[in-house]
Amino acid sequence: MKKMIYGITNNENQLINGVKIDKYIDRSKLMSLIDLSEPKVVDIIVSDITVLGDSLNEITNVLNVIHDKGIGFKSIEDNVNSHNEKAFTLFISHINRCNDIVFKELQERESRIRVGGKKRGKRETFKF
Fold it and tell me: How far apart are CA 62 and CA 56, in angstroms?
């Protein structure tokens, strides 16, 4: 079976230059593509990883699923390529670590807001 190369776009439908793309799909359909695809017959190419989601958490989740499933992945501007398994695994590890740090900082901020509100006798208004 021929390997299909999918270019992932956001709502702006930006094209990926310099790479032969068989089919462009919107990022909203990416997880369905990953779930239904065999790892050896699909490669996913993006202009940069920010196309994968609106938040670091969303980008991290998509990259983890791609990595775990073994689907080919390439980001042109970020110079990330899953065909170099060691570098791709290291990149995923760094993305996961950054996401963990941001999540812990948000939890600490939420905790400080809750404690501060209780000390002042006010109702808690912060929602995570």
Answer: 10
